[in-house]
Amino acid sequence: MIRVTDLKKSFKMFSRPSDRLLEALTGRNRHHTHVALEDVSFEVRSGEVLGVLGRNGAGKSTLLKLMTGVLMADAGDIHIDGRVTGLLELGTGFNPELTGIQNITANALMLGMSHAEIEARHQDIIDFSELGEYIHEPLRTYSSGMVMRLGFAIAIHAEPACFLVDEALSVGDGYFQQKCMKRIREFKEQGGAILFVSHDLNAVKVLCDRAMVLEGGRVVHEGEPEGAVNLYNRIMARQAEEEEGRHKARHDGAYGTRQAEIIDANAQGEDSHSQMLTSGETLWLDLTLLAHEALDDVALGVLIRDRFGQDIFGINTYQQQGAFRLVRDEQRRVRLAIEATIAPGKYTITLALHSGDHHLDDCYWWHDSALQFEVAGYRGSKFSGICQLACHIELDTRNDPAAREEAS
Questions:
Q1: Where are the transmembrane segments (predicted)?
Q2: Topology given in CATH for the domain delimited by 256-378
Q3: Residues 343-381: tens digit of each pLDDT
Q4: pTM to 2 decimal places
Q5: Which of 127, 214, 256, 270 could form a disulfide with 58 if both were Cys (CB 3.0 to 4.6 A apart)?
């Protein structure tokens, strides 16, 4: 169990290093205050994963450092049942001059493990890290991925009641990331509480039971992961717009600069002519675009999500054929054909207009769950999972008795 109540943390910011000394000697204020966290409250129950989203500077790293005791809070309370460990910034708690073996002991002691516990789990930590003979080399010779392997292996084998995971996990290779995710799920099933900080939005949706969004040091949203991810996307899209003072708020579920928008949209199956289609059927998207000023660099983006809010498929026209132009006050119709070879279920379609390859620089228009459709039944062979991949099977029949009999 993790319980955080009215947490506050601020930092004194000095224009020059000498101002710190002058303030101490003269008593005159020579700093300004940066509030990193303000009135932050939340709970993570046993067996639950809480995701934390927020842009750079929102207060995520400060929160984790307060919870691990690296920093002290100005006000508020942090209550954690049992031992807490975490994978924070790469290299935290490690000595680059010591070997991997030596760092296991040093880091585990700082996490609160006894010498007996370290001895009992020493080989398990080495085996999980999969560092091989490198475990005897100085840490300064390790890559960032190797450091992450060692850090995660030590932290998860400390048998914590609460586990904190920061973005450091992203530096590992795909195989080891999957191994870590599996171990995190096992930890959750055993009743552990997890605070998961990541920019991997799909991982937040899949792994987390709830998610919260930090903005300006405050919790601006806490609830279902899909809602938190949608708000985070909105914050990121607004960032450049707010800097240029071009943001125009609307209340129809869409947001963006509104230099261009999608004024009409329809989704239907090629054969069903409805929003109910069969797996393998072509999904038609008919859209009408309208620009309120001439734009030379426009991309249309489409993102399909399943009922859990997981991103199933996303694409934009810039990736396919480059940008296109829109003439002011002129409507432009677009039709997309998507072969929907995906599993039966309910899906939503998010639509966007932006410049370039992504929406983070100039987001003209973004609408989460603008359309929806449902897939029922299969066209062709059945499959398991989310989607069907092209698969060709070659069966060796030389030792097949039936084949030999037919040949004779």
A1: none
A2: Coagulation Factor XIII; Chain A, domain 1 (2.70.50)
A3: 988 999 999 999 877 776 788 999 988 999 989 888 888
A4: 0.68
A5: 214
